[in-house]
Design goal:
mainly alpha, 385 residues
Length: 385
């Protein structure tokens, strides 16, 4: 029973993604189901903020997690997200082709053929939210050195962000807490500017990585040997699909889906590392990431909140990551995400946690670096001269 419980609790995102796809297929107001589920999750996360979990091991120290099952679920998410795009493209095609409204039935289930502009908006928002939430699987598989790495690249490519896989492993994990890491948000930055700066910075890192590698190998930059270029080519089928579905309107819808999904990805980076500092050249320690052991956050985001343990043991399976006594916001990711959307509220909430980190976690050198940070009029953090 314990084995079932430990493995089944991580099925929230797969089941809700499938529910979102069914909502798009049924149509009418069910197209908004993905948005509604996001709101429900925020409420659940808030209500369970005081429930915290540890990893589960038997008396011999063995994990209850079943590796083959968890990897099968993660691999299954790739065709699931592809299906999500196909269903959204189908609805776009119906809208741009002026398909008349008609109630139809398939296997005894009624659905609406044709879609209104209002419900198409719900479809695009639902697809964007769950493509973004599903990026957690791209993150997890990026730490796999075998076929999982390719699956990670393909999942990220569905959001136009295949560069993430290389940048996350070779940039973020090595340069965490330093200005060389685009994914670490400095103090004072808001989530809106961070989303763009982090996305562009990670893409730039992957670009530079491939340019330098190919130069050493005396190979052309403009070739399929360039994994930066290849990653964006992985996104080409999505672009062609949405051009077919709605032309310019289809591309606009895809841009919105990509914008939402990448914003959620960078919001996770933002919440996981905001304002924390590591002296360059010093090892990454548990204190250099914000931990989140909230019950619902842990189950929903497949333990991505265990950032302290994850960054010290990067190749550890997510179901084995545990509380390591690192700094903690005290609330789950959904609740915290709502705060990030209002930068003034987020800064007010997080300041007490930053003060605690400076006092109880930072080294003398890190404390000195922190003291030099000012917030300019735009809200960006910058080093004092």
């Amino acid at each position: 029973m314990k084995t079932f419980y430990v493995n089944a609790r991580y099925l929230i995102v797969p089941l809700m993604t499938i529910a979102t796809i069914l909502g798009l297929l049924i149509g009418n107001t069910f197209a908004w189901l993905g948005v509604i589920l996001f709101g429900i999750n925020t409420i659940i996360d808030t209500l369970t903020k005081n429930i915290h979990l540890r990893a589960d091991f038997d008396k011999n120290g063995n994990s209850y997690g079943i590796k083959k099952l968890q990897y099968a679920v993660m691999y299954f998410m790739l065709p699931t997200f592809i299906l999500l795009q196909f269903v959204l493209a189908w609805r776009l095609f119906q809208y741009t082709s002026f398909i008349p409204f008609e109630t139809m039935s398939f296997l005894g289930v009624s659905y609406q053929n044709g879609i209104s502009g209002f419900n198409l908006i719900g479809s695009v928002l639902s697809a964007g939210l769950w493509a973004g939430l599903g990026i957690i699987y791209g993150h997890e598989l990026s730490h796999n050195r075998k076929e999982g790495f390719l699956v990670s690249r393909l999942i990220m490519a569905l959001s136009g962000a295949s560069h993430f896989t290389y940048a996350h492993v070779y940039n973020h994990h090595l340069d965490l807490g330093h200005e060389d890491d685009p994914a670490t948000a400095p103090r004072g930055r808001n989530v809106y500017s961070h989303a763009w700066l982090s996305h562009a910075g990670q893409s730039q890192y992957s670009f530079d990585l491939e340019r330098d590698k190919l130069k050493r190998q005396n190979k052309s930059f403009f070739s399929l040997n360039n994994k930066w270029i290849l990653g964006y080519l992985y996104s080409l089928p999505s672009i062609l699909l949405f051009v077919w579905a709605g032309g310019v309107f289809g591309i606009l819808a895809l841009i919105i889906v990509w914008a939402i999904s990448n914003f959620l990805l960078e919001a996770l980076n933002f919440m996981g590392h905001y304002g924390l500092i590591r002296e360059k050249g010093k090892p990454v320690e548990h204190r250099h990431s914000w931990d989140n052991d909230n019950l619902f956050t842990s189950w929903f985001f497949i333990e991505i909140g265990r950032q302290g343990d994850h960054h010290v043991r990067g190749e550890t399976y997510f179901w084995e990551l545990d509380d390591v006594g690192g700094p903690n916001y005290g609330i789950g990711y959904f609740s915290l995400f709502v705060l990030t959307l209002i930068p003034s509220l987020f800064r007010k909430y997080v300041q007490k946690h930053l003060d605690n980190w400076d006092k109880n976690y930072a080294s003398d050198e890190e404390r000195l670096i922190a003291s030099k940070f000012n917030i300019n009029k735009t809200g960006e953090a910058s080093l004092a001269s």
